[in-house]
């Protein structure tokens, strides 16, 4: 019945070839236009899993209570000193805030007036005591610098320290740090190198950490969701502002962008990078492979046009079903080329074989339909069932791919038995001058026949021996590892998450009110995997009464010194030169009467100042800028610090409070992990430890843990569905349990060996490449169905047949498509191509070498029973001929390949 239906359909399409061709052209053009107009891609990795999962619901509730930067661009400003970083970030934030066309909100994360005013309160009492004492003693110097911020003022300020040494109140060694830092700065300018002096480092006496030299601005851009890169306009506006403000030259600032919007835009750019070259290369390679498989330009054109029709229709219907593609479902095109062309090659190679036996084109098409109709239909149904098994899972990314690819397989099959026969009829390829099979593989056929037990047993032993390796199969479900670390947004995020104070890999617990904070924090600090705990109470400094007293005392001491700035008239260059020479002479005299490190640094600075006095005015101006620019910033910050006020939860500004406490009183406690924050196993252990007492906890480590569980469960469920559906389908057609096993066992062997090789080569499974497993089911079951149907029809010497030619070149075509993924700049896509290519190699060898050995010789007609719809019994004459030929030496192989099943 099935073979009759397929045969009638092929004959009808052949007889009405122009109608079919025109209809296919109209449909493909319309589909292509629709797909081009509606094409959209969602690069948000967080949408790859179903939103109704329990842990996803908790994440959503938490994000609703404490809105995060889900639609933001984080601007990261780094500079050589904290003063320059502060000034550069301040200028950039002010510039972006004026651009209301592209930004909804611009908020400096480090420049909130609350922290600018109360920063000293967050020091410990002992630390603040040392700070206020040092600043108080430096009051006269601060007064000079504030009143005369020039080279002359700088030399006067340093002279205060020198006077202390001359008076015996201090030693020259006590001035090693300021002398050394000043000499370094002057020498760098004289050497033509960028230079800047940090007054904060001088005051603190410690080298700055990376976070001290960094400032961040959070922006909420206006997004254009009709564009493939919604945040591109905002990104370009930030780049333009950075250029216009000359931040790189004037402040030596490096500005980087990260955050969800920047990462999503870069993600699309990475996926797009090299796509055109790879696509063209793939098409040319596929055409070359088709030439080797089909040996006819006309047949290749027919197959290629059929493939295009199917791809266009699949793309249109796929976009209609899912709206926007995701980072996994976008691979449907490659899968369609890889799998869809298999149907075309199978049909075309069988057509060539029939044309060789029967020179009449319509008769060859009819014979092709009778021979290939049943296995092609069964293979298409099985492949579609494999992909559609993912539709009911919670892995939305693969679920949508399953919908599109499953439908695409049915479309590819339909096109192969309708459009392809019509095009072959219109193109009228010439007849075949020689047989289509591979006589060169005759020795392999004989080897498999003679050493069947060894081949089957050896393969089985290899697969079984490697089973312990599966315990070491790793799953990397950290979504950030699917992104390219070379792009700015990802590289910046990886840099930021190493700073535990930013909480990039922290876990949060939501509480009903602030009264629960102390109890929860006490539980968290007892967990060995927790490094430290933060809450809103950390924003209320301890021992405020004593700290405020220290700050007020310092304010009184420095009130006169900081009351005015630039009070003195700016000196002339000659005055600066005289001041430099005077200080150099003083330092030289002091160094002559002392020894040790202090004397060495005094001499070094004296020499540098002398050289600077002898240099041109341009160099002196550069030195003045290197000292004075950060000085003005530091003095401004100091004035703000002296305005500190008592802090309580109720007095926290709204912008700060809402990051920790909601309007209805709910709050959160945040825990950060010990160990390497970039190690997935560390984060998983951390998540398990927190979830034990706090099952409702949320955060990146929890997402990594739960997404891994979700994906593994999805693939187990889909694997069971796929195997059951394919097994049932095979049983309906084959009607023999043994034949079903002969089809599935090679498939399972290929799957096991693929995973074992993954362990050996260190290839972990991740969000993207795990789709190789359903593809393994699809490609594998298709190849094995072709062989089991040919074997049931009585065909022998399978490796010499046209079937093996079709399987080998189809596999190479698929490998080419997957190879284009492997070459992608996107790590997730590249790993997908790598595992797809590996799974293809194992399933092809399982089909071409292992399955024939497993099946052995075909059954006799009486033993075989019903071979399923469309099968045929072998011609006795041909069977006897085959037996006779098998007994001959390999050098006397017959001209024809494997004996073909008799025509009905």
Keywords:
35 helices; disordered C terminus; 6% strand; 63% helix; mainly alpha; 4-stranded antiparallel sheet; 904 residues
* Residue share in helix: 55-70%
Low-confidence stretches: 861-904
What's the gyration radius in Å? 38 Å
Q: Count of helical segments?
A: 35
Order of adjacent strands in the largest pleated sheet = 3-4-2-5
User: What's the mean pLDDT score?
Assistant: 83
Shape: elongated
- Residue share in β-strands: 5-15%
How many β-strand stretches? 12
Give the class from helix and strand content and strand pairing.
mainly alpha
Main sheet overview: 4 strands, antiparallel
Q: In angstroms, what separates the terminal alpha carbons?
A: 13 Å
Q: Explain this structure to me?
A:
- The chain has 904 residues and is mostly helical.
- It contains 35 helices and 12 strands.
- A 4-stranded antiparallel sheet has the order 3-4-2-5.
- Helix 15 (297-322) runs antiparallel to helix 18 (396-427), helix 16 packs antiparallel against helix 17 and helix 32 runs antiparallel to helix 33 (827-855).
- The longest helix is centred in the last third of the chain and has 35 residues, at 700-734.
- The radius of gyration is 38 Å and the shape is elongated.
- Residues 861-904 have low confidence and may be disordered.
